[in-house]
Design a protein that fits this description.
The protein is of the alpha+beta class and about 600 residues long. It has eleven helices and 24 strands. InterPro entries: NA-bd_OB-fold, Rep_factor-A_C, RFA1B/D_OB_1st.
Amino acid sequence: MASALFSFCNLISSSQKRNTYSEPFVMQMEQPAITLLNNVDLNVDDYTIRVRVVRLWTRPAFNNPRKIYCYDMIFMDQEGTKMQAFVLQRNATVYEHLLKENQCLTIRNPSMGENRQKVKYVHSTFKINLNENTVVEAYTGHVGSEWGFDFTPFDSIREDPDEDFKSFKSPIDVIGFVVKSIPAEVKSDSNNGKEENKVTFILEDLQHHQIFVTLWDGYADQIRAFETNHPAEKNIVVVIQFGKYRFRGGHVNVSNLYTVTRVFINSDIPEIVDFKKSFVAQISASTSSGYSGLTSSLIKSPVDEYLKDFAFSTIGALSGISEKKAVIILGTIKSFASESTWFYNACKSCTKKVFTTTICKDKEDGSEGFDEVTVLECQTDRCNQKTVISVPRIKVPIRVQDCTRIVTLTLFEREVVKLLGVSANHLLENNIELASEGKFPKEFDSLLNRKFAFKIAIGSYNLRNKADGYSVSKLTENPEIMAELDHHFNAIQPVDEEQLNVVSADSNPTVKVPVKDSVSRTGEEETPISKLNGSMFTTPSVPVNSSSVSMMEKELKRNLDAVYEADFCSSQSSTKPRQSDSGMEEDANETEKLLKPKIEK
């Protein structure tokens, strides 16, 4: 027993001596297992994730806009899966300095909640919540790609016939070459009175598919700033990250998603550099001439658009236009076209009017013969390749008048909603029964007797049928524009007629007024009516002699006899036989009556 104990002590002693000369022992802490975002188990509370902060924005406190209430973020893991995250500022005081874009983090014990936002910034239906028990540490390694792009090929964006054409889908990342830009505009007639501006351009991908992009406010300013700083740049590649999209008129339209979207323009990012090289390599000398880039996107004020970019026309001159074009007219809404309704059944995909048609289908029970079925048919062939679904859309026919004529114009839903300040759904749901009675909603009455400058389109239908019913693409009540356009009418019909230059005779109490009659003229280009007593226009300075009046009336009658032929006299008609000379003599004896011409009916 003693021998065994001695041997054990020697073993410990020799072991300690060996450790004295060996490398120091370092205790390795066990690294926690990393859970990928797609593998998070809702039944497990103790787990660790490793992510990159791809996007971050803050929300202010309700009672103090300058104080941060919470941080919203978009996390991305090693596989590229993204998930929205949220943390209250009071829970993030320890690691608040780590909350910044492109920062990689190791996060222990987060909680997983339901993402109830209607507008989703990522495809996941869950949201990560960093609560008071969550531990957040910086990670010095790399997690996923630096920018977290997830580009969608243009041709893979498919229209869902069951989706409302008014609603947007999100999110979407796109990259493309700017091939054309549509002039930007300032909107001064938004519902809240705040001016909004936008830019719209067309992007093309490497497979030469195209989409429309519309950016608003600060994002529009970003585009214009690039154009100002690089006026000669034609090869422009734009990335829209975390955008939204919808189909309109059969085309994809991508837009910014509030302030979450990121826009990159010719940035020194590998994805953009590689795309630009590939696209430019495909461009030939002939195709490149059709690419205008952003050169036409300079902002245009409403004044420029209405007064410089498009020709002005009076309503009366519209029928003389012989080519398709857009023009500006100025007029007042006087009424609604009573024979028309104020909405139409539109195709859900392209918004064009749909019609009903009857087709023959095989009987559902499999028996011989056919059944006649009434279906909807769109004016666009592409829409008819699938089931056509219709929705009611507002279209208001209005009667607009200027000093030359009155014309029928058509206001569409976008402009009507802006003017009335109510939603289209409100108008349709509350008033659709009025259509069967031929009545218009009472909300429309606020449009009557309002004067606008209208930008209208003269299309092939108007030219072919010599008909009005022009479509209104835009309208404004801008006082500066209205005043400038109003000057065009001065040459047609002055607001104030010329003052009458009254000249008094020295020896005659009557006044000769140089007013010409527009119906009849004498050989001296002077109408007999202009020789009437001056009391018709002014008060004589001295009493008028009654004999002078009688002489003047006789003179007037003789002048009328000289001017008008016998068939214009009160006793004659072009459809009746002449009277006898005695009848004429009787009329001549009536000195107190003026001879009145009788207009042939």
